[in-house]
Amino acid sequence: MGSKDALAFLASPEVVAASAVLGKIGSPEEVLGKPCNPATEVIKTVTVNPKPIEENEKSESESSESSSGVLPGFPESIEGELVLCDADNINTDGIYPGKYTYQDDVPREKMAQVCMENYDSEFGSKTKAGDIIISGFNFGTGSSREQAATCILARDIKLVVSGSFGNIFSRNSINNALLTLEIPELINILRNKYKDSEPELTRRTGWFLKWDVPKSLVTVKDSQGEIVLEQKVGELGTNLQEIIIQGGLEGWVRSELKKEESSA
Questions:
Q1: Cβ neighbours, 10 Å, residue 202
Q2: What keywords does the record list, in alphabetical order (predicted)?
Q3: CATH topology of domain 73-235
Q4: Which of 33, 93, 119, 216 has the fewest C-beta atoms under 10 angstroms from its C-beta?
Q5: Residue 58: per-residue pLDDT
Q6: How far apart are CA 104 and CA 98, in angstroms?
Q7: DSSP letter at 241?
Q8: Which residue has the higher pLDDT, 254 or 36?
Q9: What is the pLDDT of residue 59?
Q10: Among candidates 119, 173, 182, 114, which has minimal Cα distance to 149?
């Protein structure tokens, strides 16, 4: 989907019918002999012009004074030690082994035990409750198994930070109340720090991340307490907070149904 090398494409019934008539991918207009040209050139990159320093400092000052709302039951801040899983494209099978995917009776303790097993068999012995996973780019690529999110929660890890996430994993994380943050700069800083060190699949960094939810601000400190990174992140909306508070989308739907029943 979206690639000229793809073996299959998604299309509307009209486009499928028109393409069958034309013998190539085309539009219904072309069947009627009308030319169909793209209205505009496809934008492949977006360039953000940096603000002047004075303007940037002013906007940061104003945003620090304001804060987004935090619902009752949602934490004001989330913090923990960063555990580096230094790899790109860690897929869902690496996070949660496929042999367990269709076993509905796997207990939570077992899910926690096998979390990241196919990525690193030592992950379980190197992590503890309250840690924050930080990984490379395209974390969670692959299949749509929701256990890739729930097994991380089973280890009592509430937040995963990455350079970027697979789209399906991002959706599953929201559905199952696992928080995620994309901070490419942070993974690059850590990779630079350990570039001359002996490779480790899972590494305790001694660095601590704090996410101030009302201020939408992430602060990372090293083992000496020095600030390594301080960065604004996207505001966590109240709709998403409600889903997290209810333990995921299923819990949120149940709570909404109860509200409707009580008001009926």
A1: 21
A2: Lyase
A3: Aconitase; domain 4 (3.20.19)
A4: 33
A5: 55
A6: 13
A7: H
A8: 254
A9: 53
A10: 173
